[in-house]
Sequence to fold (63 residues):
Amino acid sequence: MSLKGYFQESFTELFHKVTWPTWSELQNSAVLVMLATLIIAIIVAIMDFSFGKIMHMVYNLLY
Fold:
């Protein structure tokens, strides 16, 4: 396949075969991703804080 044929097939597929999400579907997906990211960030922050406190207690016992 030539480079020209590749681009022609890619164009055809993108504009005639792909089902693109609606604006509201896109907004809902973006909100879902932001919420999931926030929840994961909070969980990681809690784990980091807890591990730091535990390590601080262990170091105080050792030294």
